[in-house]
Amino acid sequence: MQWLWTVAVKSVLDQLQLTSSRRVWWVTSGLMGTIPIHAAGDYRPNSTDNTMSSVISSYISSFKALAYARQAGRGTQASSTRMLLVTTPGHGRKLDTSHETRAISQTLDPASITALSRPTPAEVLSQLPSHTFAHFACHGFALARDPARGGLLLVDDDGGRAILTIEDLNRTELGRARVAYLAACSTAETSSERLLDEAISLANAFQTAGFRHVVGTLWDADDYAAGKVAEGFYGRLFEAAAIAAAAGDGDGDRDAELGAAKALHESVLEYRGSDRRRDIRKWDSFVYIGV
């Protein structure tokens, strides 16, 4: 990570005239999508020579995708928070989704959460339009030659494998859906090198399908770290929204644009500071994609 900071990222940041938000959008594609630019740097104690200490990073697949996401959100009014929580524990590589489920339950009013365990694609699609947030703790994959057929691994009516595809999402009117959190989507079930960037590709696909804000992982996330980061993310996001609403902020949509990326950034920083082993591999996979 220090090499990446020295030869590439530091030089870029030195040339930027950053605004007070410290937001930077990294435009990546292909193998560049596997490089954790947001985690580049020196992480020895007290060092600030790293991306995390310098800027709040967002990723986007193209300028066109960023412009589309911003345009799609214009005129959108803030609405009551409703969470769709989708889990497929024990399907494929074993996932421990208990940390994330507990974190969400402790952050939100249980009455605002719709929890679907091992749902079918049809069940998820029927619920998405009426929920502001969608949290997916399940496996995902992308197909390099046919991205629209990639998606999330769910179950069919008989309990076998079924896929909620990007094509399905593109055909669905998402309604209130604004934030997608792809917590456990990973590359664990494939050994094909040409699909190394599948996780971030899947997150990009969710963004272009209509979710303005997407949290994803570049590779397998530690289950405990995933829970703590999710807890911090939602806690910060909802606290900021509540403060804006109480203040009668008429620019709530702008706050949402800045808030999601900042919430993930601060949550990862918090987890990083609490990890006594200073294991960068437990937090460097979390990425934010969107406006």
UniProtKB/TrEMBL annotation:
Residue span(s) of domain CHAT: 2-290
InterPro entries registered for this protein in UniProt: CHAT_dom
Superkingdom of this protein's organism: Eukaryota
Pfam family, one: CHAT
Protein name: CHAT domain-containing protein
Organism: Diplodia seriata
